[in-house]
Amino acid sequence: MRLLDAVLEANKRFVQPNAFPPLPKSPKKQLAIFTCMDTRLVHFLEPAMGIKRGDAKVIKNAGNTIIDPFGGVIRSLVVAVFLLGVEEIFVIGHKDCGMSTIDAPHLKRKMIERGIDETVIDSLVPDLGQWMGAFACPEENVGRVVGIIRESPLIPRDIPVHGLIFCPNDGHLDVVVNGY
């Protein structure tokens, strides 16, 4: 069975009439979480924080990095704050993040092997490692991202921006930046 067919079959088994009451679009706990897309965090980070369906806005990307200070992450946070009632922002990185070990030349080779033209890569992203948001230390990345959000002219000064590191093995959180 192809993956799409398996997903659709699982969805048929999942959907039950009236099993899921409608929820408001605004998060119950008035918080936004910006975190990594690492699969080890799925169904783990939110419960470790006491977060349930409907409690928080969750924004994810590779390495919870911000490359463009006016790009998609800030845009999502602006929507969350001004249209959905978010009152606090949590930037959550994690231990053993794959973005801390990005090998840009290896990535470029893999892209070329899959048919991406090298001249396209070089012209669109001359510094592949920087464009990917590679970093050496997850804690430093969290601090850097908190700083970008905190300094954004589009995020109100009264919104606390916290930075934390999550352990994908046991679920504990360490504070890197207390936004209060």
Q: What layout of secondary structure does this protein have?
A:
Blueprint: H1 3-14, E1 31-36, H2 45-48, E2 56-61, H3 72-84, E3 88-94, H4 104-113, H5 118-124, H6 128-132, H7 138-151, E4 161-166, E5 173-177
Parallel strand pairs: 1-2, 1-3, 3-4
Antiparallel strand pairs: 4-5
List descriptors.
single chain; 180 residues; globular; 7 helices; alpha/beta; five-stranded mixed β-sheet; 36% helix
Task: Explain the overall architecture.
The chain has 180 residues and is α/β, with parallel strands linked by helices. 36% of the residues lie in helices and 17% in strands. It has a five-stranded mixed sheet, with helices on one face. The longest helix has 14 residues. The termini are far apart.
Sheet with most strands: strand arrangement? 2-1-3-4-5
Uncertain ranges: none
Percentage of residues assigned to helices: 25-40%
Mean pLDDT: 95
Query: What is the CA-atom radius of gyration, in angstroms?
Result: 18 Å
Strand content: 15-25%
Q: What best-fitting shape do the alpha-carbon axes yield?
A: globular
Largest sheet: 5 strands, mixed
The number of helices is 7
Number of strands: 5
Question: Order of helices and strands, N to C?
Answer: HEHEHEHHHHEE
Gap between N and C termini: 51 Å
SSE class: alpha/beta
